[in-house]
Write a structure and sequence with these properties.
44% of the residues lie in helices and 20% in strands. The chain has helices at 43-47, 54-76, 95-112, 121-132, 172-182, 189-197, 220-232, 238-264, 279-291, 301-304, 309-322, and strands at 2-3, 9-10, 12-17, 22-29, 33-41, 85-91, 116-120, 140-145, 150-157, 160-166, 268-272, 295-297. The protein is globular. The chain binds 5'-O-[(R)-(carboxyoxy)(hydroxy)phosphoryl]adenosine and zinc ion. Residues 121, 125, 146, 273, 306 line the site of zinc ion (ZN).
């Protein structure tokens, strides 16, 4: 630990993220100041398979982890001796992929004789909000929507979360990816649909909005409705299909987020995960937040998608609350948020 200007002790954490197809490392001070953040995406390696292949992901993490950590330390202009704790995502995620980051973090923690902190990936997504805006006041209503997860969470305070809704089948990003694959738009599907939807009419086709009035979400029926519609009407304008599908996803996500915020009297609406990049979702959340006098917190894409700055940020709070994680703790591929 080093002493900063006001005499308080600065805690500098090296964070590592390898839960899926991004190899990432970052140096963050006091859970809120990002000193460096390096993300190496494997999207190109997985694109031809139409999704993430676990064994390919693990092997790529093994190749990339050393250089990515070296880059993060280099960009921060520190060596291991200047790091106060080392954190890695230990779940949820792909077992082999998680093991690469966790093993690297433990080895470095042993060498540097500093604490190791295992971090929940979903909790880390919540901390992306505080990284951008340390003054955000709980309770917050947060939507985490990625290729693997879709959940609405009320953050009551640091370390106190309530999952108030989650998908009962596909994740929102998975629905984007599956529909895009069916329409021949490639992988990942979200950006392709987002772009194509700009030329389409979101009201052209009345796709279903699943589970109205309930807190959980569902996207698999919507995906089937798109497939059935296109099979029945092969001449339909693909841009209209993309725009109408996207509108159905956005309606469901935004409605459930606002309902959760209302029920918890949340002061802000927050987005996280790759689907938070969706232009229609961002516009809608901004609009509904303004209408209800709430803050909308829409992090830049680099903080929405998987990164290690959020791991280091969450680790700072975890270290304060719980202390170090024992070095014999493993990885937990199905780790829940609470
Ligand atoms: O958080 P993320 O980078 O990785 C994990 O799945 O953990 O999220 C990736 C997901 C993919 O399903 C991708 O299609 C989706 O986020 N995505 C989008 C957009 N950009 C990425 N979905 C809708 N609109 C976008 N602009
Ligand atoms: Zn994620």
């Amino acid at each position: 630990m080093s002493t900063s200007g006001g005499g308080s002790e600065r805690v500098r954490i090296l964070g590592i993220e390898t839960s899926c197809d991004e190899t990432a490392a970052a140096v963050v001070d006091d859970g809120r100041h990002v000193v460096s953040s390096v993300v190496s995406s494997q999207v190109d390696l997985h694109a031809r398979f139409g999704g993430v292949v676990p064994e390919i992901a693990s092997r790529a993490h093994v190749d990339l982890i050393g250089p990515v950590i070296a880059d993060a330390l280099g960009e921060a202009a520190v060596d291991l001796g200047g790091i106060d704790a080392i954190a890695a995502c230990h779940g949820p995620g792909l077992a082999g992929a998680l093991l690469v980051g966790v093993s690297a973090a433990k080895a470095l923690a042993l060498v540097a004789q500093v604490p190791y902190v295992g971090v929940n990936h979903l909790e880390a997504h919540l901390y992306a909000a505080w990284l951008e805006d340390p003054d955000l006041a709980p309770p917050l209503a947060v939507l985490i929507a990625s290729g693997g997860h879709t959940l609405v969470v009320i953050v009551e305070d640091h370390g106190r979360y309530r999952v108030v809704g989650q998908t009962v089948d596909d994740a929102a990003g998975e629905a984007f990816d599956k529909v895009a694959r069916f329409l021949g738009l490639g992988y990942p599907g979200g950006p392709a649909i987002d772009q194509l939807a700009a030329d389409g009419d979101p009201g052209a086709i009345a796709f279903p909005r699943a589970m109205p009035g309930e807190t959980d979400l569902s996207f698999s029926g919507l995906k089937t409705a798109v497939v059935n519609h296109v099979r029945r009407s092969p001449d339909v304008a693909i841009a209209d299909v993309a725009a109408s599908f996207q509108a159905a996803v956005v309606d469901q996500l935004a409605d459930k987020l606002v309902a959760a915020a209302d029920a918890a009297d949340a002061s802000a609406l927050v987005l996280g995960g790759g689907v938070a990049a969706n232009s229609a979702l961002r516009a809608r959340v901004e609009q509904v937040a303004a209408a209800s006098g709430r803050k909308a917190f829409l992090p830049p894409l680099a903080l929405c998608t998987d990164n290690a700055a959020m791991i280091a940020a969450a680790a700072w709070w975890r270290l304060r609350a719980d202390g170090p994680t024992p070095l014999d703790a493993g990885v937990e591929p199905s780790l829940p948020l609470t």
